[in-house]
Amino acid sequence: MIVINLDVCMARKKIGLMDLAKKIDITPANLSILKNGKAKAIRLSTLEALCRELDCQPGDILEFRPDDGEAG
Questions:
Q1: Quick check: is 70 in a domain?
Q2: Is 8 contained in some domain?
Q3: Residue 38 belongs to some domain of the structure
Q4: What is the structure's pLDDT at 68?
Q5: Does the structure show a pLDDT above 60 at 71?
Q6: Which of 15, 49, 54, 65 is the most buried (most CB within 10 A)?
Q7: Any idea what the CATH number is for the domain that residue 24 is in?
């Protein structure tokens, strides 16, 4: 499964959801969906904007964890 660590990255940069949404030109509702791991997809342009604003790499935001029962 893919785990979204956006909340961790936001906490490190001490930026709130509303401020980040405004800076990357995304609705707070859509950013919240992404932050809470409910999103089914993310645009590369959104990922790029997040990385630029949070000064991080895509791997800091997205993490792969094998599901229970999968060989890892």
A1: no
A2: yes
A3: yes
A4: 77
A5: no
A6: 54
A7: 1.10.260.40
| 71 in any annotated domain | no
Is the pTM of the predicted complex or chain greater than 0.85? Answer: yes
DSSP 5-72: -HHHHHHHHT--HHHHHHHHT--HHHHHHHHTT--S---HHHHHHHHHHHT--HHHHEEE-PPTTS--
Structure tokens given for 64: 């792969």
Domain range for 54 is: 2-64
User: Is a pLDDT exceeding 90 seen at residue 67?
Assistant: no
Band (pLDDT 50/70/90 cuts) for residue 27 is very high
Token code pair at residue 19: 């401020």
pLDDT over 90, % of the chain: 92
When divided into structural domains, the chain yields a total of 1
